[in-house]
Design goal:
The protein is mostly helical and about 60 residues long. It has one domain. The protein has 2 helices and no strands. The protein is elongated.
Length: about 60
């Protein structure tokens, strides 16, 4: 993968993360006090963290 393609891919990932953060910041409500929402929130955070780590590893591998 050429340098330009890697930069384009990273830019798309960063833009997607910015959109996710914007949506997360705009969602009203608080899950505290609701154990089911807290558990789902933690599960989703874990899934997202794992996927970001996978993307990071893939980008590092491609850059080698």
């Amino acid at each position: 993968m050429s340098g330009d393609r890697i930069e384009d891919a990273v830019s798309r990932i960063e833009a997607a993360l910015a959109r996710i953060a914007a949506v997360a910041d705009s969602v009203p409500g608080d899950s505290s006090g609701n154990p089911e929402l807290e558990a789902e929130n933690e599960r989703l955070r874990s899934v997202v963290s794992e996927q970001i780590a996978s993307l990071d590893a893939l980008i590092a591998e491609i850059g080698e």
